[in-house]
Amino acid sequence: MPDTFTGWVAHGPKSPLTYGAFTPKPFEETDIEVQITHCGICGSDIHTIRSGWAPADYPCVVGHEIIGTATRIGRAVNNKQNIQPGDRVGIGAQCSSCLRPDCEACADGEESYCPKMVGTYNSRFPDGSKAYGGYANRWRGPGHFVFRIPEQLSSAEAAPLLCGGVTVFAPLRRFGAGPGKRVGIVGIGGLGHMGLLFARALGSDAVVAISRSSSKKSDAIGPLPNKLGADAFIATGEDKNWAKTHARSLDIIICTVSGENMPLSGYLRLLKRNGVFVQVGAPEEPLPPLRAFSLIQKGVKVTGSSIGSPEDIRQMLNLAAEKGVRPWVQTRPMEEVNLALQEMHEGKARYRFVLENGAKAGKL
Question: Where does this protein have coiled-coil stretches (predicted)?
């Protein structure tokens, strides 16, 4: 008989999660099994539970910011990290790809763009078995996508890095954030606050927080660890001249927000010649229309970025450990998942909720 795991299961877009059993993928010798201690709540979890992007494959167990203890390691795991039973490990938003040498994405170390990419939840493995996420007691999946967690990072702080953190880190790394570059982060929330932290940790000349209001300005401006590392703040809903005042001042903009009314043309005015605008927020509705002159007058680039590769995750974890990057998290017992999801949806997280298995939770 197949073994079973237990977790918080979504059965439909409008019903609360219920605790119950589910059957994971069959164990293969390329797999690692993990006893879960923590799992971050990501905006993707909410979109998936309510079938916001597309109809979910119910029953579904979400959660792809997983931290736990390795308990079983297959004999065929390509274990470059030398993960052993008892080690603390993490899993992000991807749990499989084809890894074929003739796959351009996998061969280039960009597994997150593999055409056969398997998400950590609401996805299917090649054999047809479901991928189940981290709102559960255990996780099982390919060892290629399991990462050793540096000892300098607590489990609650490390969890949000595995999806939200790498989602902002990967484009910052790709487009050269660091000395000589001025970086803007649009949206100071779960993703955006980590964008500020990593832009600062990478040594950018200036880090600018961009939000509709100045309500989070006091959190954003100032040195780590008590503040988020921003040097300046632009409140687009409070200064009608913001785009003109700050025109041609930024090299890179990472946009974590979405919405058909977001001032995209204004954001592009902030870019210098050959600047890059990267969309990482994933809306359920279309992005606003874009005028051609917003692109051609300065040769700016508008692009997107999806999570990050295993190499991105390894580099991000090492940088976070070295530079003291610590997401701002609030922990909750796993059994309070429905309440935490509701408060996340209402924007009450400052700035990330992390679920804990078997421990009394509080604010870090």
Answer: none
* Separation CA 166–CA 171 (nearest Å): 9
Question: Which part of the chain is CATH 3.90.180.10?
Answer: 5-163+308-356
Task: Indicate the pTM of the whole model.
Answer: 0.95
Q: Distance between CA atoms of 301 and 182, rounded to whole angstroms?
A: 16
Token duo for residue 173: 């790394």
> 314: closest CA among 162, 168, 201, 204?
162
**pLDDT tens digits, residue range 185-225?**
999 999 999 999 999 999 999 999 999 999 999 999 999 99
Please tell me the distance from the alpha carbon of residue 163 to that of residue 276, in angstroms, as a whole number.
Answer: 22
CA distances from residue 135 to 22, 65, 66, 161, 279 in whole angstroms, order as listed: 12, 10, 9, 17, 27
CATH ID of 5-163+308-356, from 3.90.180.10, 3.30.450.40, 3.40.640.10, 3.40.50.1000 = 3.90.180.10
Q: What is the CATH number of domain 164-304?
A: 3.40.50.720
264-298 burial code (b ≥16 CB/10 A, e <16): bebbbbbbbeebbbbbbbeeeeebeeeeeebeeeb
